[in-house]
Specification:
mainly alpha, Arc Repressor Mutant, subunit A, two-stranded antiparallel ribbon, 2 strands, globular, MarR/SlyA-like
Amino acid sequence: MKRNDEQPVAFNALNRVTWALRRAELAVSTLKEQRLRPLGMAAAHYTLLISVHSEPGLTGAELARRLNVTPQAVASLVARLEGRGQLERREHPRHRHVQELHVTVAGRKALLAADSVVDDIERQITDGLGPKETAQLRTLLDRVAETVREA
């Protein structure tokens, strides 16, 4: 039996692009959580609200696929936001067993406040990079996503 420190790992494992992407994602996620917390909102709530706001009428299953989370996770988030009066379910016009999700007036107010926080984080990042590097980063990240989808 081998000990964990004897497992073969590439010498540059922590220098991989995938690890750099993960570190960046964790740093941004942590900052969002810290700055949204005073608003009583988690980053997951913001993500769900902005998704439904941009595409009213999404179902829980559609949201789960788009956000790459389980339907149970979406159901839990929906229940919490619905309990706060920020989200509402409406019967689908053609499928009576399907419920569409819609942001309420209270949800739009909460989303507006949260989006201001996220916009500040975006500005912090883009100010640190500058316009040219920001454009390059967006292009490169789009290419990464495209390359991974094609794999």
